Automatic annotation (TrEMBL):
Organism of this sequence: Streptomyces celluloflavus
InterPro entries hit by this protein: Lambda_DNA-bd_dom_sf, TPR-like_helical_dom_sf
Protein name: XRE family transcriptional regulator
Segments passing through the bilayer: none
Pfam families per UniProt: HTH_31 (PF13560)
Length: 419
């Protein structure tokens, strides 16, 4: 019974991002939930046994002849199938891992507090990921920034604040697995930055659009945005980290397009830019440091199939990453394990993979879960090796926990992230 229950819970975990299940739970329509599980190959006998109801009663629910009404039955279903309590209007269940609420600003007022809001959101994002911050950023934009755009006394700085916070909302949407929404925010941010006259900010937004294009597999668009960003950067105060980031995005786009010599030249320029003395700082520009550069170089060299060099930079990125930057550290670990897999060093995959599984499971990042899912599919080809097979068992258990913790931010756009 224990093994069957675990399989059933895994089936439910794989459906937590499905809009049909989310709607069924919101409506407390257990008949639809049971039908979804049955369509996934779970027998009615197993469903009825887990829910502690008769098969006759189960058929009544599935056929719409009756609905679950009693609180204790909803609690039985939530606990048996590991459906997070909030999805059924219940209190947090005893088996749900405790998740600390991210400390973002509820209300930061107006005017000079835009920079404080950005800093607070960035600090929270480092720890929790952007998935649970998206609504707070959009709310701050709507309530504290948007109305000042039409105030004649506000000045150009409010357009810069609106641009920077719109770009941040784009990153939060991207971290939630909603890349279409992320691009809309970036598209809104760029004209606002240009209206403010802040060319470094415009260059920063172009770099973000280039990154998003790479994530969605559009190397041509990534190249376009990286070049546009470099043009913007050439007309404003020189910010070394921003220039390095743009050259790195250009290098990755070129590597994805198999222009390897040009990609290497762009990596060299990125190194030179980051090592140059900074001529200016900028409150709205995204941080880009040695760890960021090492991580992006590792990805570029991986795409160029220069795995030994890529490995050195991936190791450097993990070593430089602060433990307080949970998402960046998780992504760097994923890159490291992926490169070991490309090198067919399976013992290293298992060793570093075990470290990867210890990274913050409550991290609100669908992007991290998607990359973990890609890694798992890659490792499936090696499950004939016993240590890899054992590791995949641990991996699946960890993935289930992450899915449960992400249930409140997953959307239909995030389907397919289950192991």
């Amino acid at each position: 019974m224990g093994h069957e229950l675990e399989d059933l819970r895994m089936a439910v975990a794989g459906l937590l991002g499905d809009s049909r299940l989310q709607h069924a739970c919101a409506e407390r329509d257990m008949g639809t939930l049971f039908r979804l599980l049955n369509h996934r190959g779970v027998s009615t006998r197993r469903i009825a046994t887990a829910a502690q109801i008769t098969q006759g009663r189960l058929y009544e629910y599935m056929n719409g002849k009756s609905r679950v009404q009693k609180l204790e039955v909803f609690e039985q279903i939530a606990d048996a199938f590991h459906i997070p309590g909030h999805m059924l209007g219940l209190a947090r269940r005893s088996w749900e891992p405790q998740v600390d609420e991210p400390a973002w600003p509820r209300s930061l007022g107006t005017g000079g507090n835009d920079h404080a809001a950005m800093d607070a959101f960035r600090d929270a994002d480092k720890q929790t990921g952007g998935g649970r911050l998206y609504g707070a950023v959009v709310r701050h934009l709507r309530e504290n920034v948007a109305r000042r755009l039409v105030d004649a006394e506000s000045g150009p700085q409010v357009f810069a604040a609106a641009a920077a916070l719109s770009e941040m909302a784009g990153w939060m949407a991207h971290d939630s697995g909603r890349d279409d929404l992320a691009q809309k925010h970036f598209d809104q941010a760029l004209p606002l930055a240009r209206a403010s006259g802040d060319t470094p900010l415009a260059a920063n937004i172009a770099a973000s659009s280039s990154h998003l294009a790479l994530q969605t597999g559009n190397a041509a668009q990534a190249t376009h945005w990286a070049r546009a960003g470099l043009q913007f950067a050439g007309h404003g105060a020189r910010i070394s980290s921003l220039t390095a980031r743009l050259h790195t995005m250009h290098a990755r786009a070129l590597a994805a397009s198999e222009h390897h010599l040009m990609a290497q030249r762009e990596l060299d320029r990125a190194h030179q830019a980051l090592n140059a003395s900074a001529e200016a700082t900028h409150p709205w520009v995204s941080p880009f440091d040695a760890a960021s550069l090492a991580s992006e170089i590792a990805l570029t060299l991986r795409d160029m199939e220069r795995y030994e060099e890529a490995l050195r930079h991936a190791q450097e990125a993990v070593g430089l990453r602060e433990s307080g930057r949970a998402r960046s550290l998780a992504l760097s670990h994923i890159t490291l394990v992926t490169i070991h897999a490309h090198r067919a060093d399976l013992d290293a995959v298992v060793h570093f993979g075990a470290e990867l599984l210890t990274t913050n499971p409550s991290l609100g990042s669908v992007r991290v879960v998607n990359q973990l899912s890609d890694l798992r599919r890659m490792l499936e080809d090696h499950r004939g090796y016993r240590p890899v097979r054992d590791f995949l068992t641990q991996f699946d258990a960890s993935a289930k926990t992450r899915l449960l913790l992400l249930a409140d931010i997953m959307t239909p756009h995030s389907e397919g992230i289950s192991p």
